[in-house]
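Reviewers of the previous submission asked for a worked example of the structure-prediction workflow described in the proposal, so we include one complete record here. The input consisted solely of the amino acid sequence. No template or homolog information was supplied to the procedure at any stage.
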Amino acid sequence: MHFNNRKLDIRSRGEITDYLKILLKKDQIKDCQHLRIDEGDLHAFYTECTKQYASRISADNVHTDPSAGGAPSSYFWPKCPKDCPYYSKSEVFIHSLNSEVEEISNYKSTSDNFKKVEQFSASNAWTEIKKDFDITKYTFGKKIHFVKDIFKRKIIFRDIEHAYFFTQNGFNKPAVILAGGVIEELLRLYLEYQKIKPSDNTFNEYIKSCDRKSLFKKGISKLSDSLRDFRNIVHLEKEESTRYTISKATAKGAISSIFTISNDF
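From that input alone, the workflow returned the following structure tokens.
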């Protein structure tokens, strides 16, 4: 499929969606809720099976760049197996494909911080996260491959987006709480994936279990430990003086910890 004798624009969610509808008619893919479009490297949109069960077919109708300078070096379309054990029919295929198009609008307040933003979306959050932390949503999603539940993945992505929003607008304490919660859940799920049972279901025990099994580099273990201390500080009874005030640097460090730790998954 070409548009006006040109190749598909993979930076257009609409064109990717339209082509997937053609692949659906050709029976190359299924109208499955586990197929979705996510923004990835170089602001291109990619289709992935969240169950990682679909095979891939090299695309010849999109522009690629072997140097990966102006376009991805390669690009693929999904091919669903005929008898996929994970097939789950989508009620509205276009909507489930583009489930990450979520907007948090009407953030209005007399606060100067909220006046800066009237509309905040998941896509522009990850554009800014890429600038600050040099990681895309697509790349991070691949790193947390052990999180199979699609709803759980969406919650993790959402909480990172919200933590970043809070940090950028001066709400450092909720940013640290959200970032700490994301890391705690990722550690819990990773231990479960590794079939390791901690002695207790607490953030502290998750970190100790990872240390005992040498799942992470030493420096990253210390990073997790520091984040646990950050979360201890956010309790109201701990805020006894300005010495415990959470700075923007601390909040950004908490978010950065998510991506640093994910490198060892």
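Residues 124 and 161 are 9 Å apart (CA to CA). We consider this example representative of the routine output the project will generate in years two and three.
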